[in-house]
Amino acid sequence: MSAEAVELRGITKRFPGVVANDGVDLAVHTGEVHALCGENGAGKSTLMKILYGMQAPDEGTIAVGGAEMHFRTPADAIAAGIGMVHQHFMLADNLTIAENVLLGAEKQHGIGRAARARISELAGTVGLAAADGSGARSAGAPLDMLVEHLGVADRQRIEILKVLYRGARTVILDEPTAVLVPQEVEELFATVRAMRGEGYTFLFISHKLDEVRAIADRITVLRRGRTVGTVDPREVGNAELAEMMVGSELPSPESRDSSVTDREVLRVEGLGLPDPAGGRDLLDGLDLVVHAGEVLGIAGVEGNGQTELVETVMGMRRHARGRVLLSGVDVSGLSTMARRERGIGYVPEDRSRHALLGDQPLWANRVLGFQSRPPIGRHGLIDRGAARTDTERIVADFDVRTPGIDVMASALSGGNQQKLVVGRELSGDPVLLIAAHPTRGVDVGAQAGIWAELRRARRAGLAVLLVSADLDELIGLSDRLAVILGGRLVGTADPATVTPEELGTAMTGATR
Fold it and tell me: Residue 509 and residue 374: Cα distance in Å, rounded?
């Protein structure tokens, strides 16, 4: 490893009321995997946006390959050989792999034979299929396959392929394992290691410390906008890394004290949901029961019906067959608001789309979903004073770190946004909480707080339907586990004995 691929010196970025980066230093060697860790609000995202040209620093310098750079747009960063794979994929399902790679990069190699040859060459680098002159293909997805037919792991490879096609030699991976099962994580790591051997450089952003230590050559930790230090993963453990990140020990979702009762809260019978596009049913004869004081964990590779199950139980989708019963009452014909009024709390998988209004203050976000119930809704009107008072309670009880309740929701870090959502949804003593990826993209400190609140509510008799891509979280929090595949529940597992590897195998259908 020779010259620095990327070197950031004294990077400072200020926003109203907060210093996101405060003199941050980061040096990434050519041909290494360099992990960047820190709790939400530590400044990781801001630093990467600065490196990728999405924001300009107030102070400090950026050097690429020893030459100082001034990025005004992502196009500037791409021209300097820096690419970024975002946590949420940005692919067009109705286009092929090759078309997705070409989209927006038509000037690179045109759209004909030269472009196809370059895509094929890079496809092998990222572990996708490539076609040679004879038409033979390696194992994997062919370049003319529609993206809608691909799984999460192949979609991620396409995102990496896109940035390589645009000339990236340094690749930023933002939470790349958030939606992968253990076997897919190993495949990704194998791809990253192979590419590192070819001279590519990676900046790897993650909250999963086991994975960081498995893949990274070095780890830089940020805390409250400052560089805490850079360490060798072979010389530190998870506990030391967690303490560097948040100043406390690593939390665990483990919860083996049973509070399960015989009282049914949620019963789903024969749930069927057709595919509007005419394909196989999105949900196909699905049955489940959740009792008071119980967490039922749903394990599955994304795209196998988890989202449809959650949104159907919430009334956001209208099912064609079956029933949804809440505390013995059929609520299948009720609206989403009516179901919420009967005691369903909802933590959606995408808080920015379905849980928060980013351009509204925290107290206004407290109103969402509760506008028809006391203390927020009274006689058809919204009690702003009550909303403000209860928001202050949530901020205090759930450790939402904010200068005040008039701050816009978008100004909070992801972890603090999530704590606000969880606090709101546990207000009003719900009987059922539907939690979809409740700690996705949040740091270990926020994880610990959310896990503690879920355990507390469960002990108090709350029924929880938990969907998560974090298998340690699923195993640690759940009283029972069910595996969903192709819109059906295909098996169960005991969280006291199952391993993440066994659960991952069942999720992919290998044991069927």
Answer: 46
Quick one: which of 52, 211, 375 has its CA closest to 62? 52
Dihedral sign for Cα atoms in the order 114, 115, 120, 121: positive
* Strand boundaries in 182-337, DSSP class E: 201-205, 218-223, 226-231, 264-273, 283-291, 295-299, 321-326, 329-330
**Kind of pairing, strands 381-382 and 377-378?**
antiparallel
Phi, psi for residue 347 in degrees, rounded to 5: -110, 100
Cis-peptide into 74, omega within 30 deg = no
- CA dist., res. 457 & res. 312, Å (int): 23
Mind giving me the DSSP string for 444-489?
HHHHHHHHHHHHHHHHTT-EEEEE-S-HHHHHHH-SEEEEEETTEE
Domains assigned to the chain: 4-246 (3.40.50.300), 251-343+430-512 (3.40.50.300), 351-429 (no CATH)
Q: What is the pLDDT of residues 125-174, one digit of tens each?
A: 787 754 333 333 334 567 888 888 777 778 888 988 888 888 889 999 98
* Contact between 477 and 466 (Cβ < 8 Å): yes
Would you say 56 and 32 are in contact if contact means Cβ atoms under 8 Å apart? no
Pure H helices in 250-383: 306-313, 336-341, 351-354, 362-367
pTM greater than 0.70 (yes/no): no
